[in-house]
Write a structure and sequence with these properties.
- The protein has 223 residues and is mostly helical.
- 56% of the residues lie in helices and 0% in strands.
- The termini are far apart.
């Protein structure tokens, strides 16, 4: 019978305590533990950014065009979280069981609504409505810097996995493609809102909000 060179390896048949996928990554020089921890931190950043985008978007009242574009970015950041979490488990890890620990691990700073004392400002003590403490330009600036942090994060993960871990690289590259788009959208909006200067992003409307053409195959939308 002809020998099949890939039929066996150092992982014994039926062994469920080791993973051939991890073994192949390690042979190519990937520190799997380090990568897994970076993925958890990056997933936490996407999850918390989705949360903060929800607040920031709502306070762009009167700027429905801005809100629509921010909704795309908001839902796509949620898609990034959903896309990467299974990979963390495939690598033998887990996201933290305590959401507070998870949020603290985020690789990017909290995207607080401006002028809220780091999110500590509260409404409702005397029945007052929540009114915006920040201008549209202030909010767009926070959103822009959140996207830039994400670009740096996923670029690092792409660099760590290029040619060594095709699966993680492909997932991270899909996320990075959308984060780069988000930055361009926000530069366009902020440049016009704050400076009156047109810096087109090449933005075209998604088919539906949150369509996430790179990171999610089926869209979801919670109006």
């Amino acid at each position: 019978m002809e020998t099949k060179p890939h039929a066996t390896g150092t992982v014994k048949a039926g062994d469920v305590t080791r993973r051939v996928g991890i073994e192949q990554m390690e042979r190519r020089g990937v520190n799997v533990t380090e990568l897994r921890e970076k993925l958890i931190d990056a997933a936490a950043a996407e999850f918390t950014t989705y949360y903060y985008y929800t607040i920031l978007r709502n306070f762009l009242a009167g700027h429905e065009d801005y809100k629509e574009i921010c909704e795309d970015a908001r839902l796509e950041d949620r898609a990034h979280f959903e896309l990467m979490v299974p990979r963390i488990y495939e690598l033998g890890g887990t996201i933290p069981f305590d959401i507070r620990e998870f949020a603290d691990r985020a690789s990017c700073p909290d995207a607080y609504l401006p002028n809220t004392d780091g999110g500590k400002l509260r409404w409702g003590l005397d029945g007052q409505d929540a009114t915006s403490p920040a201008s549209a330009a202030d909010i767009l600036t926070v959103l822009l810097e959140a996207e830039r942090c994400a670009i740096r994060t996923w670029s690092e993960i792409c660099d760590l996995t290029l040619g060594k871990d095709p699966r993680t690289y492909e997932l991270a590259m899909r996320i990075l493609n959308e984060e780069i788009e988000h930055e361009a959208w926000l530069i366009e909006l902020l440049s016009m809102e704050r400076d009156g200067v047109s810096r087109p992003s090449g933005h075209f409307r998604r088919g539906e909000p949150g369509e996430a053409p790179f990171s999610k195959n089926r869209s979801f939308y919670n109006p």
